[in-house]
# Entry
Amino acid sequence: MKVEIWSDIMCPFCYIGKRKFESALAQFEHKDDVDIVWKSFQLNPDMKTEAGKNINQYLAEIKGWSVEQAKEMNDRVTEMAKQVGLEYDLNKAVVANSFNAHRLIQFAKNTGKGDAAEERLFKAYFTEGKNVDDLHVLSQLAGDIGLNITEVDEVLKSAAFSDEVQQDVYEAQQVGVRGVPFFVLGNKYAVSGAQESATFLQALKTTWDETHS
# Structure
């Protein structure tokens, strides 16, 4: 059974949703028969990478908030992340466009490492404060999950996998994705948002039962 997950690696709820889905999957009796396919989505495709700008400043500017309000919101998200075992350090988060990171994920998917790439990029952004639009940083992260750094360098320095990213974004529009994370199970059911693990588990069971009856 295929599960497609539209996600942006700079979306805090996507990382939280990944953990909650993984918890559900671990309890699912047919987990070994589930094929997870990560799909690219950009919350802000026009975002300009500004490595020197704090994410609280950026949110304050685009949302019309004070920096204090932005920090309070990020503190709440950090607490939510902690509840599923994730350590966010959003004070270090770098304002960066995620398009190149998505190209890396698309390349990684071709080698069976899509999930590993997604995980490594989430941690790099939310915990380590790395610039996920920096090609050198992306190559290092690729090396961390066992990808060939020379191949990755060639991919990132070209426009390779741009079409695959755009195709995922187009498909998101076709299936009505308004926000991420967005899960499509067995081309049949959709779950939107970082739902509780019990919700994901029920969706997995229902989809499996209806597609294997």
User: Anything to note?
Assistant: DSSP finds nine helices and six strands in the chain. The first strand starts at residue 2 and ends at 7. The mean pLDDT is 97.
